[in-house]
């Protein structure tokens, strides 16, 4: 039976304590299967980014259970000590504003993610080139991020997210800075990756133009799934 | 790939400008170290150049540098006859203003008897004093070439030679003249009432007075023992060369030394604060990049390496610039900027430590950046 990349069971997050406590997420149940592209929508302050942070293990839940690839990651405390290793080996991130390191060219931005995971620099560069070619930005491999168009930069960012063949891809408003045509292309790319790599893709978005590109849309309101 | 170098390459112009600014600041601190060393070197230059083993001065004084000392001219013969003394020479010392071709200059006039201890050990250009009167050997700092003439105490002196690096503890260049000329000068530059009294045969007495007698000892002679013998004459005191050097550095230039030392410490402290602020700003400029690195799994040592390497490179390049400009302009300074390999190396170490300490604040800030700072707009 295939492992389930993301499983949240009654996940909750409360910021602060006592009278000033704010319930950001409450009793969230979410499963993202391998090869599935799920959209996460909701108004500002509904808890989308918090849920993404919890799944990415960059914020600690306060209730429930989180399993990645059926392995319990959090159930009242973290079961995995090296969370950065978990992130670099299993999770790929795509950001709203691509977040490429401005001092590295496109190929080095992608290769860095691999060298962090232990790949030799030469091999990392080779694979980074291949990835950029696959994403049709190979000819811009040596360009600095400031020289890339929005669409090109986002493709490089996707290449970086895919560099270590992650089981989970978390994307925070990846199409916010793109026009609708490019936004659809990005989503199609993510879908392709999800299917080829059998990865779970969870995308936070407000962008109604791409709602039809998801396998499933999950709506959040006031920290709860509708 | 080295992230620190890549980031510097990306903003090379800004980095170099920062280094240049920092280099100017470090250069000021380095100059202060050089001036501090220069004050000590200058203070000891004359004493070392005379190669005296013993200084005989007036009883109850620590002359001739720390206090005024007057001895009768015949003390030299007395000292020369002491067991263990190889040679003795009388010297006079006084500060005077001279009319030189380039204008009025302030000099320290030293009178001695050619052929006896008291003259410069080495002549840089021209020759030493001969038998003729009104000749003068000047230090190169006075900018008087051989053949030039100056007016000193109303008399015209001709420069016959130059020395190098011989200045008083106040930084005035030394000029050497014949002992008799200097005694004349003492009289001519004395207050008018004293001159009148002396001319009338009363007052201060003979003009055959000197400020000190310096002695060179036979090899194996104990300076302390000879000094003890001199002190038996109640009107004389004696200092060994080591005591004289100690007196010069601890007493004569002590206040200037401490002042410069404290100013250097303040400058280094200011440099440390500025370096810390620059490194902190450089780190905060990369807040989002550091958060992204953390998010994609970069270990803390990579973040620490990024900040630390940039701090050390900033300090290193800035310091190279500082050494470059200080060495290029140090001869323009009116006083000696004595910088050798030791001073430059020690200062490099101090700058390195400052950069390390200054980067701690930035490293702390970088490690506290949360990965989620990379998310969102």
Features:
heterodimer, A: 226 residues, alpha/beta, Rossmann fold, six-stranded mixed β-sheet, four-stranded antiparallel β-sheet, 6 helices, 32% helix, B: 377 residues, alpha+beta, 2 domains, two-stranded antiparallel sheet, 11 helices, 12 strands, 19% strand
What does this structure look like?
The complex is a heterodimer of chains A (226) and B (377). In chain A, 32% of the residues lie in helices and 26% in strands. By secondary structure, chain A is α/β, with parallel strands linked by helices. Chain A has one domain (6-15, 22-225): P-loop containing nucleotide triphosphate hydrolases (Rossmann fold), CATH 3.40.50. In chain A, α3 (106-116) packs parallel to α5 (150-162). The radius of gyration of chain A is 17 Å and the shape is globular. Chain B is an alpha+beta fold and 377 residues long. Chain B has 2 domains: 3-43 and 255-374, no CATH class; 54-220, no CATH class. Chain B has a 6-stranded mixed barrel. Chain B has a two-stranded antiparallel ribbon with strand order 2-10. Chain B is elongated and about 100 Å long. Chain B starts with a helix and ends in a 9-residue tail after the last helix. The model of chain B has no long low-confidence stretch (mean pLDDT 86). At the A-B interface, α1, α2 and α3 of A face α1 and α9 of B.
Flag low-confidence runs of chain A. Answer: none
Largest sheet of chain A: 6 strands, mixed
What is the arithmetic mean of pLDDT of chain B? Answer: 86
Major β-sheet of chain B, in short?
6 strands, mixed, barrel
State the separation between the terminal residues of chain A, measured CA to CA.
29 Å
* Overall tally of domains of chain B: 2
Give the termini distance of chain B in whole angstroms.
Answer: 28 Å
Q: What is the CA-atom radius of gyration of chain A, in angstroms?
A: 17 Å
Overall geometric form of chain B: elongated
């Amino acid at each position: 039976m295939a492992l389930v990349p993301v499983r949240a069971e009654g996940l909750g997050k409360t910021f602060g304590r006592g009278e000033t406590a704010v319930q950001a997420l409450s009793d969230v149940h979410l499963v993202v299967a391998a090869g599935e592209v799920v959209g996460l929508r909701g108004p500002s302050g509904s808890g989308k980014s918090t849920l993404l942070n919890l799944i990415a293990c960059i914020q600690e839940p306060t209730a429930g259970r989180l399993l990645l690839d059926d392995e319990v990651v959090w159930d009242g405390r973290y079961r995995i000590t090296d969370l950065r290793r978990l992130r670099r080996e299993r999770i790929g991130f795509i950001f709203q504003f691509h977040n490429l390191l401005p001092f590295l060219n496109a190929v080095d931005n992608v290769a860095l993610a691999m060298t962090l995971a232990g790949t030799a620099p030469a091999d990392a560069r080779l694979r980074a080139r291949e990835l950029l070619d696959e994403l049709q930005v190979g000819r811009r491999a040596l360009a600095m991020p400031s020289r890339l168009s929005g669409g090109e930069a986002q493709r490089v960012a996707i290449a970086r997210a895919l560099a270590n063949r992650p089981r989970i891809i978390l994307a925070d408003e990846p199409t916010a800075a793109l026009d609708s045509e490019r936004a659809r292309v990005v989503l199609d790319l993510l879908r392709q990756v999800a299917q080829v790599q059998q990865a779970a893709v969870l995308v936070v978005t407000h962008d109604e133009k791409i709602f039809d590109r998801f396998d499933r849309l999950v709506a959040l309101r006031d920290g709860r799934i509708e | 790939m080295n992230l620190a170098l890549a980031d510097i390459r990306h903003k090379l112009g800004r980095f170099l400008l920062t280094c240049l600014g920092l280099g100017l600041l470090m250069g000021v601190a380095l100059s202060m170290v050089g001036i501090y060393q220069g004050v000590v070197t200058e203070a000891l230059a004359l004493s070392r150049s005379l190669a005296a083993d013993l200084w005989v001065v007036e009883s109850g004084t620590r002359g001739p540098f720390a206090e005024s000392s007057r001895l009768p001219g015949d003390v030299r013969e007395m000292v020369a006859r002491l067991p263990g003394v190889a040679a003795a020479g009388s010297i006079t010392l006084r500060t005077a203003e001279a009319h030189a071709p380039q204008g009025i200059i302030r000099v320290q006039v030293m009178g001695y008897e050619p052929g006896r201890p008291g003259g410069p050990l080495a002549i840089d250009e021209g020759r030493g004093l001969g038998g003729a009167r009104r000749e003068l050997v000047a230090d190169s700092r006075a900018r008087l070439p051989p053949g030039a003439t100056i007016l000193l105490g109303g008399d015209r002196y001709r420069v016959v030679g130059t020395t190098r690096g011989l200045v008083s503890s106040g930084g005035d260049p030394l000029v050497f003249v014949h002992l008799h000329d200097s005694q004349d000068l003492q009289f001519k530059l004395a207050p008018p009432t004293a001159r009148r009294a002396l001319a009338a045969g009363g007052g201060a007495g003979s003009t055959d007075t000197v400020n000190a007698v310096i002695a060179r000892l036979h090899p194996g002679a104990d300076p302390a023992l000879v000094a003890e013998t001199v002190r038996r004459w109640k009107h004389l005191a004696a200092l060994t060369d080591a005591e004289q050097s100690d007196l010069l550095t601890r007493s004569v230039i002590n206040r200037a030394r401490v002042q410069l030392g404290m100013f250097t410490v303040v400058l280094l402290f200011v440099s440390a604060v500025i370096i810390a602020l620059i490194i902190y700003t450089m780190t905060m400029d990369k807040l989002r990049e550091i958060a992204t690195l953390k998010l994609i799994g970069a270990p803390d040592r990579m973040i620490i390496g990024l900040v630390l390497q940039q701090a050390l490179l900033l300090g290193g390049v800035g310091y190279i610039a500082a050494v470059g400009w200080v060495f290029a302009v140090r001869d323009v300074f009116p006083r000696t900027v004595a910088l050798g390999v030791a001073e430059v190396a020690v200062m490099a170490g101090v700058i390195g430590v400052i950069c390390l300490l200054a980067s701690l604040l930035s490293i702390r800030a970088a490690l506290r950046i949360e990965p989620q700072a990379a998310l969102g707009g």
